[in-house]
Amino acid sequence: MRTKSTVLALVMGALRIICFTTMFSIAVALPVLAADKPTVPKSEWMGMPAKERASFADGDPASPWNAQYKLGPDSIPQDGIPRGEVSQHRFKSEKIYPGVERDYWLYIPKQYDKAKPACLMVFQDGGEYLLGTNVNVAAVFDNLIHKQEMPVTIGLFVNPGDKGPGNPVYGGTNNRSIEYDSLGDKYARFLIEELLPEVSRHYRIVADPAARAICGFSSGGICALTVAWERPDAFCKVVSHCGSFVNIRGGHNYPAMIRGTERKPIRVFLESGSHDIDVVFGNWPLANQEMAAALKYRDYDYKFVFGECGHSLKHGGAIFPDTMRWLWRDYPRGAK
């Protein structure tokens, strides 16, 4: 009986030691696991909780590699230059993203003549491009249209849908990742079949795809490429700032797709930097360099500007006037 009691006591003691050791290991590991969680820039995945966005420094304009990029005279309102009008609107998708609503803004240049159709440029994360301080698109358009360095162009600034699953891994409450990171023609159809007809009820837009450009930052950048890739009959000019050509929803497949597909009639401007982000989905600097190599391989009309920026619009904003000159370089100065 004493032997059985002794064995039982030893077993119980061993179990206590194992249990304590396991709990201690978990307690020690928790900070390590938290530290290993990928960091995310302020300007990325806008459906993410603000606390997590604020923890990432690379998108901070105060970062040394972003602070070197400044806006020039073409990005600042100038005296004596006619200024376009900006209006804010609300739109609810009924067909492509049923029930999902969003804000959008229209920039109508002073030179717009309702008797003549104008060119069009669409911006994803439109509020950032129009209302933020990194790009000042309206001022750039005012100045370059006045100097006839780009055609008369209506700006359509579209925010992501405000109801959705958020971003993989990081979550959120909006439809941004579904709309922007997904491959296929769904978002292009939203623009072409739903939103543009609404805009066209009030303003005339050139039908020629050479008169239509699309632009975006990060996930909005890959979205811009996807729209033109799927519908070059509707958009053939692309601007991607720090484009997310990584494995969020399959975007890492684009270089191989470009190399293996007959060249499409689209013009592509890519921008990224050596301090762009490197997270669980991939490495942005490498992904953009691989995109540029694929476009070169297929003899696309493209330009790749690689700076030192982090994941922000500071660099893309500083060079935006020159980007517009390059993008519209051979288009008539005045819509037809």
Tags for this entry?
336 residues; alpha/beta; Rossmann fold; 2 domains; eight-stranded mixed β-sheet; two-stranded antiparallel sheet; 10 strands; globular
Portion of residues in beta strands equals 15-25%
Shape: globular
Low-confidence stretches: 17-57
Largest sheet: 8 strands, mixed
- pLDDT averaged over residues: 86
Q: How many separate domains make up the residues? A: 2
> What is the helical fraction, as a range of percent?
25-40%
Strand order of the largest sheet: 1-2-4-3-5-6-7-10
Q: In CATH's first tier, which class of the largest domain applies? A: Alpha Beta
Number of strands: 10
The structural class is alpha/beta
Number of helical runs?
Answer: 12
Q: What CATH architecture label of the largest domain applies?
A: 3-Layer(aba) Sandwich
Q: Look at the structure and name the CATH superfamily of the largest domain.
A: Alpha/Beta hydrolase fold, catalytic domain
Q: Write the CATH fold name of the largest domain.
A: Rossmann fold
Order of helices and strands: HHHEEEHHEHHEHEHEEEHEHH
Distance between the termini: 103 Å
Radius of gyration of CA atoms, rounded to a whole number: 25 Å
Oligomeric state as shown = single chain
Write up this protein.
There is one protein chain. The protein is of the alpha/beta class and 336 residues long. The protein folds into two domains: 1-36; 40-327, Alpha/Beta hydrolase fold, catalytic domain (Rossmann fold, 3-Layer(aba) Sandwich), CATH 3.40.50. The chain is 38% helix and 17% strand. The chain contains twelve helices and ten strands. The protein has an eight-stranded mixed β-sheet with strand order 1-2-4-3-5-6-7-10, sandwiched between helices. The termini are far apart.
